[in-house]
């Protein structure tokens, strides 16, 4: 069994807006996204429709991952710069935790930012393991009840010097946990809460220690966002964990970073499939240095059978929280169309460049019984080129050398899984 978890979001006050289509000469939409002064908000962006949802970043403390497939996890709010310490691996020590022992608690735990499993949070980095049973870092699977039994006691330390003692006691279709606040000289009353997973379409439930309750409507639907702009901890410059701001990607997309590449250009090459990553901070803060935006970083985003190209233009820093970027959907420019239900194909560049080399781009959803093929015909119906397509699933590309063809118009016929698609190709 694997632990699951990821980012938290906030919706105490939600502002939703649609990107006003400011399109430049190359067809890119300008997005003026801001997190506000001091990065006071988190912003969810949907590339398909341009919608942005902005929420206050500090209205919750811990988030609980929700999934029906026995996937459990809990995340700390990086926007509050909270450090998580393991105070004990035994829940029976609850009444014996003393902050004077902080030096013995070891290094603080953080939400991992390099993971491809975005459900993993700070608490999953805890010490609880079992040689025979699935474990989560904070608990162990109970073979009788099929619940996760909590084992670890954590202490959350806030930049203000506030301490909160916290433990997940049980997880099954929700989470039961307890917490206690340090009043400066002793622990306050222990509070116990249970939060059911719920039925709305979001990744997490959110809880606030300030209100002692679940924070509702903290996250858009899973299908309603692609990038979330937020603060997160990262091992900065190989020196120490440090809170930075940037874009966290949804599990619905994969991203390929290309550097160096000219941002404002009419010609480009989609990276190979192996270059696309599900790591949650593929974009992250990699587009900016200290006080500047790199002038040669471009991102390609794959969402289903659609592709987007994007690059950043402005970094306002903590003063404004501005992170402006441009993007455009490039699926159509790649000439991608559906061939039955098994695959999507495209050819580019079209028209060809001087070397007359063409790339067939295809995203195969389902392997066919036979390999596909691509054929090129002149306008008299004569076949002038043929090649076999690889029989595999996934996103990949195959280069065709048409240098032997004279300039003119041709038809490209692509066959896969018993379906055929024909495209016009202009050879220069």
Q: Provide the succession of SSEs.
A: EEEEEEEEEEEEEEEEEEEEHEEEEEEEEE
Number of strands: 29
Sheet with most strands = 7 strands, antiparallel
- State the helicity in percent bands: under 10%
N-C termini distance: 56 Å
- Rg estimate, integer Å: 25 Å
The number of helical runs is 1
Q: Domain count, please report it.
A: 2
Percent of residues in beta strands: 35-45%
Overall average residue pLDDT:
87
- Name the structural class: mainly beta
Can you tell me the residue ranges where pLDDT is under 50 for at least 5 consecutive residues? Answer: 1-13
Q: What general form does the structure show?
A: elongated
Summary tags:
428 residues, mainly beta, Immunoglobulin-like, 2 domains, 7-stranded antiparallel β-sheet, 5-stranded antiparallel β-sheet, 1 helix, 1% helix, disordered N terminus
Structural description of this entry:
The protein has 428 residues and is mostly beta strands. It folds into two domains: 1-333, no CATH class; 337-427, Sandwich (Immunoglobulin-like). It has one helix at residues 317-320, and strands spanning 15-18, 29-34, 41-45, 51-56, 62-65, 74-76, 83-88, 139-141, 148-150, 153-157, 163-171, 174-181, 191-196, 204-208, 213-215, 227-236, 240-249, 254-258, 298-303, 306-315, 322-329, 337-339, 343-348, 357-364, 373-378, 383-388, 394-401, 408-416, 419-427. Strands 7, 8, 9, 10, 11, 12 and 13 form a seven-stranded antiparallel β-sheet that branches. Strands 1-4-3-16-17 form a five-stranded antiparallel β-sheet, with no helix packed on it. 38% of the residues are buried.
């Amino acid at each position: 069994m694997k632990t699951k978890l990821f980012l938290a979001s906030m919706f105490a006050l939600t502002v939703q807006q649609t990107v006003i289509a400011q399109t430049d000469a190359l067809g890119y939409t300008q997005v003026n996204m801001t997190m506000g002064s001091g990065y006071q908000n988190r912003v969810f962006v949907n590339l398909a429709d341009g919608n942005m949802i902005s929420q206050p970043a500090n209205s919750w403390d811990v988030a609980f991952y929700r999934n029906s497939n026995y996937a459990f996890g809990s995340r700390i709010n990086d926007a509050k710069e909270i450090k998580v310490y393991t105070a004990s691996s035994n829940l029976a020590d609850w009444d014996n935790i003393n902050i004077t022992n902080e030096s013995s608690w070891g290094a603080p735990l953080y939400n991992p930012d390099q993971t491809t499993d975005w459900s993993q949070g700070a608490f999953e980095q805890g010490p609880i393991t079992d040689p025979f049973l699935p474990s989560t870092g904070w608990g162990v699977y109970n073979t009788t009840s099929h619940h996760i039994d909590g084992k670890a006691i954590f202490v959350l330390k806030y930049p203000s010097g506030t301490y909160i003692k916290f433990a997940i006691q049980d997880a099954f279709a929700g989470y039961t946990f307890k917490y206690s606040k340090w009043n400066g000289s002793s622990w306050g009353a222990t509070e116990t809460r249970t939060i059911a997973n719920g039925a709305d379409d979001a990744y997490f439930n959110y809880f606030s220690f300030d209100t002692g309750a679940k924070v509702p409507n903290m996250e858009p639907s899973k299908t309603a966002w692609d990038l979330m702009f937020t603060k997160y901890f990262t091992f900065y410059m190989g020196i120490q964990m440090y809170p930075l701001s940037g874009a966290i990607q949804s599990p619905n997309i994969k991203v390929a970073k290309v550097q160096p590449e000219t941002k404002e250009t009419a010609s480009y090459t989609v990276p190979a499939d192996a270059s696309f990553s599900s790591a949650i901070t593929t974009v992250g803060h990699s587009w900016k240095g200290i006080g500047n935006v790199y002038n040669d970083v471009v991102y390609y985003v794959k969402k289903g059978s659609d592709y987007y190209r994007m690059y950043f233009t402005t970094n306002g820093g903590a003063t404004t929280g501005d992170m402006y970027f441009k993007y455009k959907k490039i699926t159509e420019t790649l000439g991608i169309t559906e061939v039955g239900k098994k695959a999507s194909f495209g050819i580019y560049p079209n028209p060809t460049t001087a070397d007359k080399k063409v790339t067939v781009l295809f995203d195969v959803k389902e392997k066919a019984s036979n390999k596909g093929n691509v054929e090129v015909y002149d306008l008299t119906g004569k076949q002038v080129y043929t090649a076999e397509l690889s029989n595999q699933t996934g996103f990949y590309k195959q280069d065709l050398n048409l240098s032997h063809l004279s300039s003119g118009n041709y038809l490209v016929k692509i066959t896969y899984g018993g379906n055929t698609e024909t495209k016009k190709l202009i050879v220069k």
